[in-house]
Amino acid sequence: MTKEQIGGVFVLFGGTGDLAESEIFPAFHQLFEQGTFSEKFALIGVSRKDMSNEEYRDYVKEQVKQEGDNESIDEDFLKHFFYQSVDNTELDDFDKLSETIKEATDAFDAEPAYVYYYSIPPSLYDETTTNLKESGILDVEGSHRVGVEKPFGESLESAKEYYDIFKKAFDPEEIYLVDHFLGMQSIQNILSTRYYNPFIEAVWNREYIDHVQISLPEDFSIGSRGAFYDENGALLDMFQNHMLQILSFVAMDLPDELDEKHINEKKLELLKTIPSFTKEDVKEKVVRGQYDAYRDEEDVPEDSHTDSYIAIELGIDTDRWQGVPFYVRTGKSLAENHFTVDLIFKGASDAPTNEQSRLSFSIEPQLGLSFVVHQNSSFESENGLKTVLGPDKEAFEDVSIPEPYEVVLSDILKGSKRHIGTYDQVKEQWRITDSIKQAWDDLPKPSFPNYDTGDRGPKEAEDLLSKNNHEWIYRD
User: Fold this and answer.
1) Is 421 in contact with 407 (CB distance < 8 Å)?
2) Which residues pair with 345 in a beta bridge?
3) Is the preceding peptide bond at 121 cis, omega within 30 degrees of 0?
4) Cα separation of 35 and 81, whole Å?
């Protein structure tokens, strides 16, 4: 049985931006090479630059070559790309865009499924959406969907404002709030492992699990992202979206079926059980840091108090997890560079080793599942021998694992939200994050910088766990 191929017209606002170059063009190329697209698709790049269709195709070709290390790009792929110069604030320019959409649609008899992807600043959301509607583009027969890059808002209040903007032109089911981490198959594997292995799910609770660690340390600095990063920091760049979504996969109750409706319902239920933070909670359970060279980075103020590191202890108010700490940490310019979820199990009271058994999900750069278990070191000794089972590297050698944007973009074109979060989830994520931001505003400014480049992070992050007799699992 062959899989159904995807068609449609993808209108990319920000069609000459960094995201287009590094993620969207390569993802479209991979989907084309894999036969995911039918011949009835087209991509229209939109930005303020003046460029012909041929110039845009040459531009796309060079970007795909650079990002994918491809020696040659099939001309059959490139011919599906079109370009239109647009000032998003000018309604007349959208009349030109409407003509280009019709040209692209007619050229390939494209499916009447239209996606408008916003890789643009939030300040342009309102006028872009208004002009799409007033130009009549959204009145063309067929489905119309809008995809929006994270972060969605700077707070719960702004997220609501943005959502109201999109609702002026799109129904809620047509709005796709993108977090590309949800397209990572290694993250989806957390849920699949629980669902397809009942013996694992049987111990997935407070009776057996001592605590959980979600770690995303990075050994590189913010680089040229100073202007963006200093407005957001680790809390908004990583915790508000990626980390809370990952936590929901770990802690949610299993859905009856692994479909978008049931998965998103259970994730929302879980997020609602995470209490907001009080000022005292933040003082005791949130650590923020900044590496020593942060204020020397391009476009960063010399007195910046933006966090390049966070470590947070969360509680979940459910019968399954009552009393189980969930620890998350992420940061820049650290000693480690990986993405791992560790579930640490309770040990026997008379265990011959202090190191607890654990189940680990390696997300990046390594993939797969591993167990750390203990057994006797010899027949004459009761000393424990640590044994590591997995990950099974050979199992992944011949497996083609799609990149996150391949998954997310194909979902939007198909009209699926299997790998897309919901607005209700985003609201809960902002509720939790805003409570930390509010406490920070009311607390004294931190003493930054407080960790060295290439270190493990602030000392306070160690104390966060040691007060509960826990330790971070390091892999440097």
Assistant:
1) no
2) 209
3) no
4) 17
> Within a domain: residue 159?
no
| 75 and 197 part of one domain | no
pLDDT band at 72, cuts 50/70/90?
A: confident
Tokens of 146: 């809008």
pLDDT tier at 324, thresholds 50, 70, 90: very high
327 plus 226 within the same structural domain: yes
Whole-number Å distance between alpha carbons of 314 and 248: 12
Q: List CB contacts of 312: < 8 A, sequence separation 6 or more.
A: 239, 285, 286, 287, 327, 328, 329, 436
Are 145 and 189 part of one and the same domain?
A: no
Whether 385 and 299 map to the same domain: the answer is: yes
The number of domains in the chain is 2
Q: Which domain holds residue 79?
A: 6-149
CATH of the domain at 86: 3.40.50.720
What separation in angstroms does the CA of 316 have from each of 202, 216, 220? 19, 21, 32
The contacts of residue 230 (CB under 8 Å, 6+ apart) are 299, 300, 301, 304, 306
Tell me, yes or no, whether 345 and 262 share the same domain: yes
Q: Residue 399: phi, psi to the nearest 5?
A: -100, 130
Residue 158 lies in a domain: no
Kind plus residue range of the DSSP H or E element containing 326? strand 326-331
Residue 327 to residues 135, 290, 463: CA-CA distances in angstroms?
A: 49, 19, 12
pTM for the model stands at 0.93
199 plus 137 within the same structural domain: no
